[in-house]
Amino acid sequence: MRMKTFSFSVTSAVIMLLLAAGCTSGYKPVILVHGVFSGPSSFKNLSRFIKKAHPGTEVTAIDLFNNEKSTKSMWKQIDDFAKVIQKIMEKSPEGVHLLCYSQGGLICRGVLSKLPNHNVHNFIVLSSPLAGQFGVPEMLHEFIPVSGRKLVYLICYRRVVQRHFSICNYWNDPHRRVKDLKFNNFLPLLNGEKAHGKMAEWKKNFLRIKKLVLIGGPGDDVITPWQSSHFGFYNSNEAIIEMKKQNFYRKNTFGLKTLDTRGDLIVCTQSGVKHMEWHSNQSVFEKCIQKWLD
Ligand SMILES: *[C@@H]1O[C@H](CO)[C@@H](O)[C@H](O)[C@H]1NC(C)=O
Ligand SMILES: *[C@@H]1O[C@H](CO)[C@@H](O)[C@H](O)[C@H]1NC(C)=O
């Protein structure tokens, strides 16, 4: 009888310990930032994958600039996302992980450049046009009423459009580099291709991250060229120039080369994944994401 009580209480103590461990899981909170024309519900599957692999993880898909509001200017979105992300980080002194999809990847880079005290550990960028976009996917045909990507600059490289339409903020026409640098008020600044007074400060802030994980692949039917998700882009002959040969890498304008030299730049390529499937594909999660959410 005594033995039985003893083993019962040992068992219950073990169960209680396990439960306690589950409640204060060792996994850092994960913040998710959505892409254009979508919202937090796009991360349903990814949130499920994370919670299944790492029980107890607190996952927050930010509910801001959803659907058609997601085409507001990038700087405006960055300011507002920064406020929400800052609040989550203040409640998580142990640090957080940030995973951002498509346009969200550029929003998150802006946030990380502008927030001096952020505590983001791993920054995971899922299929994002990091070096720009030079292709009009079908979903944009009603917004960009020109046939052919070579004419889009006529719309995008205007100051008034730059102030109001996110996609033009990362439009990058390799045949119009002079115009791009002159009129684009977002990506050339973020990538440090156009010098500005905050470059050193933004770089220092950005480099607070521990790891940068870049995920993309040739099956992507929106990001053009798909290598932009790994910081590659077209030259003026529309040949792909890979990340390490880009000026922003070679001149280390925003810290990319530092991260690489530190051993903290991870590139994960998956083929056969369409743009809208990156955050719902289990094997992408297992191969490219899971191990960076510890
Ligand atoms: C989640 O995955 C299921 C099948 O795996 C798919 O049908 C559904 O569209 C996905 N949801 C989202 C929001 O991507
Ligand atoms: C998921 O991604 C893999 C590549 O990692 C691909 O081969 C597969 O077809 C994708 N599955 C779905 C359901 O899209």
Annotation field: number of helices: 13
Instruction: Give the full name of the CATH homologous superfamily of the domain at 25-135 and 195-230 and 264-292.
Output: Alpha/Beta hydrolase fold, catalytic domain
H/E element sequence: HEHEHEHEHHHHHHEEEHHEH
The SS-based structural class is alpha/beta
Q: Separation of termini?
A: 44 Å
β-sheet strand percentage? 5-15%
Give the overall shape: globular
Mind telling me the C-alpha Rg? 21 Å
Biggest sheet character: 6 strands, parallel
Strand order of the largest sheet: 2-1-3-4-5-8
Ligands bound to this protein structure: 2-acetamido-2-deoxy-beta-D-glucopyranose
Family: Belongs to the palmitoyl-protein thioesterase family.
Signal peptide: 1-26
InterPro entries: AB_hydrolase_fold (IPR029058)
Catalytic activity: S-hexadecanoyl-N-acetylcysteamine + H2O = N-acetylcysteamine + hexadecanoate + H(+)
